[in-house]
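Title: Request for sanity check on CMP-sialic acid transporter 1 prediction

Description:
We are preparing a figure and want to confirm that the structure record we downloaded matches what your pipeline produces today. Could someone re-run it with the sequence below and paste the raw structure tokens into this thread? We only need the token string, no images.
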Amino acid sequence: MQWYLVAALLTVLTSSQGILTTLSQSNGKYKYDYATIPFLAEFFKLSVSSFFLWKECQSSSPPRMTKEWRSVRLYLVPSVIYLIHNNVQFATLTYVDPSTYQIMGNLKIVTTGILFRLVLKRKLSNLQWMAIVLLAVGTTTSQVKGCGDAPCDSLFSAPLQGYMLGILSACLSALAGVYTEYLMKKNNDSLYWQNVQLYTFGVIFNMGWLIYGDFKAGFESGPWWQRLFNGYSITTWMVVFNLGSTGLLVSWLMKYSDNIVKVYSTSMAMLLTMVLSIYLFGVKATIQLFLGIIICIISLQMYFMPVHMLIELPQTLPVTSK
């Protein structure tokens, strides 16, 4: 499967995440414990990866699997980073409003490019750097509200701690993605074996988070496993399936493509979600959204198109007279 087909499918799945999550609500509230969603999604990814790994092991040419603990323990790191990132997200939202947080979240586009260069030693051309910055500008433009919707100075009214935490959140998100790509490409191990290691730690950490929630609430609602499926509907299960499938596609991109493709997929998914929300939820369309989409499309063309298609080079040199 070509990377652009996976990226397109990832865009569709990512764009539907917010919509499905909204549809899973009842009167604006969740009937289920939303902390169980990541746990079930990780369990789904682990189950699918384990099945395909088992199929590979039954084939005539067994897959390559590095089983030394010094290699396996490296897959613990992304889980720790994501756990810290989730807590930083909640802390950031105590200082800034959701709109400001979304706009600041676009910093991860640039930080991903920087870490992509520093950690993975992948060189980007000047045109590609301009495209990445343009993508951040486009996504930010699409999210900025007009002065008639909110005070124009609201973006800069939050305390300094909020902006510092927002920058930290963007850096952690980019670091987790780049480190995961490093793990996926550091050897020729089977993708499914790498996924099994990654998602095993994911299941353990999400289970630990549920147990922590039980202790924090004093077990008022009983242990987490007794209420695991309480309030679940078909839409809720679609959210779980969507998150799990998205994670599997992202791991494929990390193995066979790179983080920049993932960044473009998720950015385009965000724009597609905003467009669909206009028709599904009556969200007001803005000129900022229209301009943001145009900027992001130009950025996409700049980054992935060959230089000779962006610039018309002369076929022959002009004849000069002496």
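Thanks, this matches our download. The radius of gyration is 22 Å.
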